Amino acid sequence: MLGRHHIRSVTRALARAPAVALIGARQVGKSTLAHQISAARPSLYLDLERETDRARLSDPEAFLSRHLDKLVVLDEIHRAPDIFVPLRSLIDRARREGRETGRYLMLGSASLDLLRQSSESLAGRIAYVDFGPVDIIDSGGDRQDSLWVRGGFPDSFLAASDAHSFAWRQDFIRTYLERDIPQFGFRIPAETLRRLWTMIAHQQGGLLNASKLAQSLGVSSPTIARYLDLLVDLLLVRRLEPWHANSRKRLVKSPKIYVRDSGLVHTLLGIETHDELLGHPVAGGSWEGFVIENLASGLGLRPDQLVFYRSGGGAEIDLVLNMKKGPVAIEIKRSTAPKLTRGFISACEDVQPGKAFMVHPGLERFPMGGGVEALNLAELIAELA
């Protein structure tokens, strides 16, 4: 079993808030993490995918009031959307009895509904922890290539071979499209959504052109926007927004889009091995998305803390992190002998970052001039943490 560094974030959140929502895509290991946490304290685990556990919550206030002395884990919370109102009453009751924190741990596979329901009913009573797939902190830097090729879903990353990992991801995609998404209440043709997902994978890291996607799928631009919102809310696609700071230059306003898990990118494109990946045109975009997701997970960054910079004149920074001490500029290169581009230098003059780095897949760390330092992904996370 892999150790997951997010366990510290969840434990700290439970120590300061009555309720904690652990948000992550299906199959990323939320339930495993919750079982580890609940094993260390008196707890009650309810899997709301099971009809028997949902039946126990037919009168949630009556049932849960008998367990105010325990941590109650509610897995797949979207299956019981009416529970948030009684939870508020139970949290307030427990507070009056001196039990102010660590009462409820809710696991959710879709951000939109969970965040909306909880924010309406549990304002001031709930903390949120984003939980992504396995990252380079969990796996170790010596397994970087395997993590990149297979992606971070635990069953995929830990599979006995590349072939087994690829087959697991194929089954995951099919199940998600045909069973899981309809369970969230969305009635979208599975094949249409798969084609859109595949198109995004083909242009991994490219600027969003909704009109072009709509034309390719034979649907309207508003329909594409709705489908993309769904994939973003299900934590399967990331929209990386452009830098919007005041600037005299004309800036690109379209977001960049990524399939969030690199293993899913490769499966959608039929790429099974590391050698096949290195010879594929998507290798650069896939590596860029891999770096972005690992930085977001490893540093616990919110979506609004990750942007990119691109001017109409071609000046570009692949990733800008909005950190407390000022922006950090990051250029992402797949080459082990990276070189600074004039566009990156020009963009840094516009953004004026506090620090600037070049991420590469090698092991060496070296200065590149102009205050830019080249280093690998694991070292960058340690540096910024």
Q: Any overview of this molecule?
A:
By secondary structure, the protein is of the alpha/beta class. It folds into 2 domains: 6-130, P-loop containing nucleotide triphosphate hydrolases (Rossmann fold, 3-Layer(aba) Sandwich); 136-384, Arc Repressor Mutant, subunit A. It is 45% helix and 18% strand. The protein contains 18 helices and 13 strands. An 8-stranded mixed β-sheet has the order 7-6-8-9-10-11-13-12, sandwiched between helices. α10 crosses α11, α11 packs across α14 and α12 crosses α13 (221-233). The mean pLDDT is 91.
In the CATH hierarchy, the third-tier topology of the largest domain is known as Arc Repressor Mutant, subunit A
Structural class: alpha/beta
Distance between the first and last residues' Cα: 25 Å
CATH homologous superfamily caption of the largest domain: Winged helix-like DNA-binding domain superfamily/Winged helix DNA-binding domain
How many strands?
13
Total discrete domains: 2
Over all CA atoms, what is the radius of gyration? 22 Å
**What is the overall silhouette?**
globular
Main sheet specs: 8 strands, mixed
- The fraction of residues assigned to DSSP E strands is 15-25%
User: In terms of per-residue confidence, which ranges show pLDDT below 50 for 5 or more consecutive residues?
Assistant: none
Determine and state the CATH class of the largest domain: Mainly Alpha
The CATH architecture of the largest domain: Orthogonal Bundle
- Count helical runs: 18
Q: How do the strands line up in the largest sheet?
A: 7-6-8-9-10-11-13-12
